[in-house]
């Protein structure tokens, strides 16, 4: 596959502190990659070096095989950062037209309004926009130059749940058209829903790299959910093999277990009166917590 971003042995030191420590990875064309990690983990510094906003202390970053500061690269990427300065007194569509004028092959204004879901706000002055609407405007401006590579820093902060899900659909559509997308987010649900690959940072290093499903598969604890029209004693369920927690509410039971196969086998061997049995894997939050905890133990 075509490599769009290559990061090789990159480190960044601030006053003798390693913000990023010997990080290497590449991103292929059409991927949606989420950079996750606790505050201070190194993901924002890494994104800044990829964008050419910060110089690596060591190592090399290339985009499309060139320096991030190369003119061809600058014309082929768009960035939706936390803060974007826009003249407050102009309207939404005037701001979009202004940013379109910076590029030789911009996306049509109407398309940008549609992709950012701002068609109804086109005549509204930027200073009157809500926080979520400003984020959507920033998205339109990042897309204005029709970039092949798109960086999104906490893109849905301030958006309501409906706007957030609409935004996700737009991101998926852009990726399906061949655009490569890098995002940071504190919403793990967002990373799970959008990314086909996650890079998890901690203490300036990448401690996990994989799909959301691969991340969640590392969690040994899983849940078994079932229904029963009969009363099943909690004590009995807690005595099942590998069960660590039991929750019940109006005939619905949730068992947390370290070994779903062993627990299910015991349920059926004892002919417990259960129906609608389902098994759920660990969540991305649990995987996140486990990876970070393991990293702290290694450092200790």
Characterization of the model:
- Keywords: ATP-binding, Nucleotide-binding, Transport.
- It comes from Bacillus cereus.
- This is ABC transporter ATP-binding protein.
- Pfam families: ABC_tran (PF00005).
- GO terms for molecular function: ATP binding; ATP hydrolysis activity.
- This protein is α/β, with parallel strands linked by helices and 300 residues long.
- The protein has three domains: 3-76 and 148-211, Rossmann fold; 92-144; 220-280, 2-Layer Sandwich (Alpha-Beta Plaits), CATH 3.30.70.
- Helix content is 34%, strand content 29%.
- It has eleven helices and 13 strands.
- It has helices at residues 43-50, 71-74, 92-100, 109-115, 131-143, 161-176, 188-194, 212-217, 234-238, 260-269, 284-299; strands spanning 3-14, 17-28, 32-36, 58-63, 77-80, 149-153, 180-184, 197-202, 205-210, 222-227, 243-249, 252-257, 275-280.
- The chain has a six-stranded mixed sheet with strand order 5-6-7-3-8-9, sandwiched between helices. Strands 11-12-10-13 form a four-stranded antiparallel sheet.
- A hairpin with a 2-residue loop joins strand 11 (243-249) and strand 12.
- It is globular and about 70 Å long.
- The model has no long low-confidence stretch (mean pLDDT 91).
Helix-residue proportion: 25-40%
**Name given to the CATH architecture of the largest domain:** 3-Layer(aba) Sandwich
Q: Which regions have little confidence, pLDDT < 50, spanning 5+ residues?
A: none
CATH topology of the largest domain: Rossmann fold
Give the spatial strand order of the biggest sheet. Answer: 5-6-7-3-8-9
Let me know the largest β-sheet: 6 strands, mixed
- Order of SSEs: EEEHEHEHHHEHEHEEHEHEEHEH
Kindly provide the name of the CATH class of the largest domain: Alpha Beta
| Distinct helical segment count | 11
Q: Calculate the mean pLDDT score and round it.
A: 91
Cα Rg = 23 Å
| Count of the domains | 3
Quantity of strands, as a count? 13
* Computed structural class: alpha/beta
- Envelope shape: globular
Tell me the β content. 25-35%
- The end-to-end span amounts to 39 Å
GO molecular function: ATP binding; ATP hydrolysis activity
Domain ABC transporter: 5-228
Keywords: ATP-binding, Nucleotide-binding, Transport
Protein name: ABC transporter ATP-binding protein
């Amino acid at each position: 596959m075509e490599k769009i971003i290559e990061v090789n042995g990159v480190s960044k030191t601030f006053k003798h502190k390693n913000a990023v420590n010997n990080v290497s990875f590449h991103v292929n064309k059409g991927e949606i990659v989420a950079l996750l990690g606790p505050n201070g983990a190194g993901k924002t510094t890494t994104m800044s070096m990829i964008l050419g906003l910060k110089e690596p202390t060591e190592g090399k970053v290339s985009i499309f095989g060139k320096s991030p500061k190369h003119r061809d690269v600058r014309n082929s990427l768009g960035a939706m950062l936390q803060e974007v300065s826009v003249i407050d007194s102009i309207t939404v569509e005037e701001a979009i037209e202004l940013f379109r004028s910076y590029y030789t092959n911009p996306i049509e204004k109407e398309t940008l309004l549609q992709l950012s879901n701002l068609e109804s706000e086109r005549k509204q002055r930027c200073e009157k926009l809500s926080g979520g609407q400003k984020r959507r405007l920033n998205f339109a401006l990042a897309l204005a130059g029709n970039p092949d590579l798109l960086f999104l820093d906490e893109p849905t902060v301030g958006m309501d749940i409906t706007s957030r899900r609409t935004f996700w659909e737009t991101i998926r559509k852009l990726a399906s058209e061949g655009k490569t997308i890098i995002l940071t987010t504190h919403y793990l649900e967002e990373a799970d829903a959008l990314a086909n690959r996650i890079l998890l940072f901690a203490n300036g290093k990448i401690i996990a790299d994989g799909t959301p499903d691969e991340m969640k598969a590392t969690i040994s604890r899983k849940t078994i959910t079932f229904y029963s029209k009969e009363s099943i004693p909690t004590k009995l369920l807690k005595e099942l093999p590998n069960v660590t927690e039991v929750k019940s509410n109006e005939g619905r039971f949730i068992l947390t277990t370290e070994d779903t196969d062993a627990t299910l086998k015991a349920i059926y061997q004892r002919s417990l009166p259960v129906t609608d049995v389902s098994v759920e894997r660990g969540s991305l939050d649990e995987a996140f917590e486990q990876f970070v905890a393991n990293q702290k133990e290694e450092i200790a």
